[in-house]
Specification:
mainly alpha; 0% strand
């Protein structure tokens, strides 16, 4: 469906460079990498949901 080749990636990178500037690109890349790492870590962790919740006595 979406075929990204080298020419397309170069165009996207050049647009990002113009929009954000050369100084911001490493910061954005680092933030994106941390976000992906945190998402993967969170998706691999076991869920801490209690299947059988404790019932409180009726008053």
């Amino acid at each position: 469906m979406f075929g990204f080749g080298v020419p397309e990636l170069l165009i996207i990178l050049s647009i990002l460079l113009v929009v954000f500037g050369a100084g911001k690109i490493p910061e954005i890349g680092g933030a994106l990498g941390k976000s992906i790492r945190n998402f993967k870590k969170a998706s691999e962790e076991k869920d801490e949901i209690e299947i059988n919740p404790k019932k409180e006595p009726a008053a």
